[in-house]
Amino acid sequence: MNILRVAALVALFITGLFAPAMAQDVTLTSRDGKVSVSGTLLSFDGEFYRVKSIYGALTLDGTGVTCAGVGCPNLETYVAEFSISGARPMGEALMPALVETFAKQSGMRVRKIVQDDTHYTYVLHHPDTGKDVARIGFRITNTTAGFAEMLNGDAQMVLATREITAAEVKAAHKAGLGNMKRAARSRIVALDGLVPVVARDNPASMISLVDLAKIYAGDITNWQEIGGTDAPIYLHLFTPNSGLAQQFETDVMGSEKLDLTASIMRHATAVDVVDAVTKDPFSIGVTRFSELGNTKMLALRGACGMAFSATRQSLKTKDYPLAIPLFIYTPAQRLPKAAREFLAFLRSPAAQQVVRQIGFVDQTVDRIGLENQGKRFANAIAAAGKETGLMDLKQMVETLRPASRLTITFRFNTGSSSLDAQSRSNVVLLARLLEAGAYDGRELMFVGFSDGQGAANGNQVISQRRAKAVRAAVKLAATTLQSDQVMLSIKAFGEALPMACDDTEWGRQVNRRVEVWIK
Amino acid sequence: MLDKKNGTPLSTIFFAIVTACFFTQSNGALAQAGSTPASSNQSTLADRVNSSEQDYTSPQISSDQAFSPLGLACDLTLNATKSVGAMVTLTFKAPCHAHEIITITHQGLQFTTRTSEVGHATVQLPVLVAAASFDVTLLNGSTISTTAHVPEVSDYHRVALQWTGESGLEIHALEIGTAHGQRGRIITLGKLDFPTAKHVKIYSFPTAQMQTSGVVRLGLNAKVTAKTCNKEIKVQTLQSGVTGGISITDLALLMPSCDAIGDVLMLNNILRDLKIEQN
């Protein structure tokens, strides 16, 4: 593949991206010999020369020029180098499998140099010549440390189990790494979720988010208090600096305004959490969906009785409230070609298959027929009453019955009309599918729903407005889409089809959504 | 089965022996067959047959055709017989290669062992694929191959490590929550110890026997010894590929410094944990 060409074309590139200037002179001459620029070579990224000339710093495409002079990089020995740092859940099994599959698809072989479980380097080399083409260094720590390494120039990609914070955005801007909030700076590699687990011989099968928060706050300390046997509850969680532990604190503890108790057994990895829980029937743990080990997952129950289990589908739709997108962030720097190709590979069906095989949730779009949504409609009937009447339900069923729901769902940040990270990624995903003609000749319905706070009429209006806003965002992103390719319609049913109980903020957030249905 | 490189059809050998016996019956020196101690005035059997039969061509005895001190033809034989647990028993016979180091190869796995005083070697090994092929190679490079069909292999999950030299690597398998004790087995192949000896460790788990879903933690342990400290150890892992097939990965383990002799470098992310999904 193309990496090969890079290797042949290109030259010296030193770790830390953009080699420190070898203060040596070069003369770059166009292929026809008509134009030439002399100066000091600032850097070479495998494709582009940056030269400090009398005209200032110039960037020249390596394919269009020949290099002469002592400062010229050695094209024969060029090896693309870049470093990836950050979250452990992504660095343990997922990234190695992705890199190995990427190499295989590119016709490369790999050699993995291992220092320990969190420090390793992949060397991609050509199978025939044995020549090294790329070196990808991994330092697996946690999301926060990953961003810190990006800031001081030691990482060109950050593995993150959470979105970048405002403080990190600010620091990156200051360091000249660009606006990290921009869509081009991050991509979702896979989806995951936080799940409470118990040993298989523990009879519990459900827990409310409120009880879960109280258990981890130390307010509930005995299984008897939540309907179990008289036995103390032993708690397990990730170490405090892990992104997943932080997510648990904000999403679960934060919504109840509770703090974690000191008597939690902390573990460095999800494997350690679940293996500890497996051995103790009186324990409870919080792990990620992608690492359940030999434990039993508990469903989350709301006060009104609606429950959610984490499944591939409920994590894709984010109907499960503790879904977690896994990101790769890249600073606004020119990456070596091999790195850019790796990023492009992450979006491919082959990469999505790897994601699935390793146990994470991929982002391919699934269809959910009405026949598999019985529970949702039963909930709707149960919740119908004063404001949502039989007529409303009938109308909704008539609209949706000939269609099926796509797993692409749009949700909003708490107390705001801005889309959350997974939904922003879904805008791009859907736009790309539309552009590619995946739904040509069909009707896609953007179906708005709201929570049950406030008057039903108002909610109907709000849900319609949200559906329109999402459609507009998708249309804007699908630049090459022709208006006659596919019909994009708007439907809105307000509070008619609640997914979760409206008594908590997370429940309301799950309910405020725009679904996409295909007819 | 035939030696690929020095192949001589059995019938030819038989004919050669018969010829030799016929000819050397006076001293009965079977072991001398192949050389021709005929005195010049005696016509050979071939000559005599030739003279009586126009189209007769004498059997070709290759010049390196040889017999062992026990009078057995030097030809190599290799047989593979299936045994329980998706295993195969390889029986290798090389009568002229007693006490010799041989290399056994199976789907990318390679290990060394030594033939017995009569040049035999019997090895039991777990297979990695249903259409399994095996090669045995002698020091002089001659190789003999055979195959076996082992469809039962799909009932097992297998991962392997292999390396050359005296690294002393181990597969670490932790079957937690599987209640009935260890079900998996670790098999060591290649027990010779010298700098170029090839070693294999295989972990084999009977997935088809599992009634419930579960996870087995797999790790690689490398002892820090005087021979391995501060060195780069080369290892290959063989495990089922993410997108199917067997994937072989070349590893270089950077061993800790020699202050850490006696410690064990434990790596949990080299071999993927085995996830059994039973619905």
Compile the SSE list and pairings.
The complex is a heterodimer of chains A (519) and B (279).
Chain A: H1 2-9, E1 25-30, E2 36-44, E3 48-53, E4 56-61, E5 65-68, E6 80-87, H2 88-91, H3 94-105, E7 109-116, E8 119-125, E9 132-141, H4 143-151, E10 157-160, H5 166-174, E11 186-198, E12 206-208, H6 209-217, E13 234-238, H7 243-253, E14 264-267, H8 270-278, E15 283-288, E16 296-297, E17 299-301, E18 307-308, H9 312-316, E19 323-329, H10 337-346, H11 349-357, E20 367-368, H12 374-383, H13 390-400, E21 404-411, H14 421-435, E22 443-449, H15 456-477, E23 487-492, H16 505-511, E24 513-518
Parallel strand pairs in A: 6-9, 6-10, 12-17, 13-14, 13-15, 22-23
Antiparallel strand pairs in A: 1-2, 1-5, 2-3, 3-4, 7-8, 8-9, 10-19, 11-15, 11-16, 11-19, 17-18, 20-21, 21-24, 22-24
Helix pairs in contact in A: 3-11, 14-15
Chain B: H1 10-23, H2 45-52, E1 77-83, E2 87-93, E3 101-106, E4 109-114, E5 120-126, E6 131-137, E7 143-149, E8 157-164, E9 169-175, E10 185-189, E11 198-205, E12 214-223, E13 232-240, E14 246-254, E15 264-267, E16 274-276
Antiparallel strand pairs in B: 1-2, 2-5, 3-4, 3-6, 6-7, 8-11, 8-13, 9-12, 10-11, 12-15, 12-16, 13-14
List keywords for this structure.
heterodimer; A: 519 residues; alpha+beta; eleven-stranded mixed sheet; five-stranded antiparallel sheet; 27% strand; globular; B: 279 residues; mainly beta; four-stranded antiparallel sheet; 2 helices; 8% helix; disordered N terminus
Short synopsis of the structure:
The complex is a heterodimer of chains A (519) and B (279). Helix content of chain A is 31%, strand content 27%.
How would you describe this structure to a colleague?
The complex is a heterodimer of chains A (519) and B (279). With 519 residues, chain A is α+β, with helices and mostly antiparallel strands. Chain A is 31% helix and 27% strand. In chain A, strands 6, 7, 8, 9, 10, 11, 13, 14, 15, 16 and 19 form an 11-stranded mixed β-sheet that branches. In chain A, strands 4-3-2-1-5 form a 5-stranded antiparallel β-sheet, with no helix packed on it. A 5-stranded mixed β-sheet of chain A has the order 20-21-24-22-23. The longest helix of chain A is centred in the last third of the chain and has 22 residues, at 456-477. Mean pLDDT of chain A is 87; it is low at 1-23. With 279 residues, chain B is mainly beta. In chain B, the strands form 4 sheets. Chain B has a 5-stranded antiparallel β-sheet with strand order 10-11-8-13-14, with no helix packed on it. Residues 1-40 of chain B have low confidence and may be disordered. Strand 7 (109-116) of chain A pairs parallel with strand 14 of chain B.
